[in-house]
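Cast an eye over my tokenised protein here and flag anything odd:

===
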Amino acid sequence: MDVATPNCYILEPSNTWLIEDPAMARSVIAAQLYTVREFARTPSDIARTLARVRAIGYEAVQTSGLGPIEPRELRRIADGEGLTICATHVPFERVRDETDAIVEEHATLNCRHVAVPLMPQEYRTGADGFVRFARDAEAAGRKLASAGLTLSYHNHRFEFQRYDGSPGLGILFSNCDPRYVKAELDTYWVQAGGADPVAWIDRLHNRIALLHLKDMTVIDDQATFAEVGEGNLNWPEILKAARAAGVEWYIVEQDLCRRDPFESLQVSLRNLRSMGLH
């Protein structure tokens, strides 16, 4: 497929999932644990952190940045706190090369959403690299789909560099089947890449299972991270577009916090609820 070819795949109904999201989660808002990674180095740290996240009011989490812990133990802790593990972050090398192990781990976690947090450096060679990554991701996504899992890709800023007029992210998604490679769009990094989060949510309609909610503000003439609703992103329009696009999980993340990270998670949750998201 030519790298500039528009997405011409036809979306078809998904297979019945083999792994179900637990009914305990009544909210569609989740906390990305990367936000509190400094408090999640050991299994006992993770247990205390999940308890604090649940006490703030979150009912679901995405795992990322955790210290070593067995999936069975992580599931036990999460279940004990009444938390759904709605998604994970898994390096692409593992998704590509250890697919069977990924399936087994996610069955243990009762989690069906696998997200790749970053494109490996080996693929960042220009438009051709985005095409290679798209095809390798689709191959892995097909295997995951056969086990009832979804594969999503999480963007940063570099994916908005243009190649012959097309942004890398567009090249990626135009060269893989949306049934097997979905988007975990990150609102901050879309904005940082000089693009419009609302336009990209619209562009990836019905392909975004997971949306990272992350705000941007300016301090001393430098863009930086902010709690959701405390920065400059257009949240009413972002959330409106996300609902129309069929987003399943709205995941709060803040890479760097200027206050206690748990307080940042609390502020974001409070603001989202005031915007009508629950």
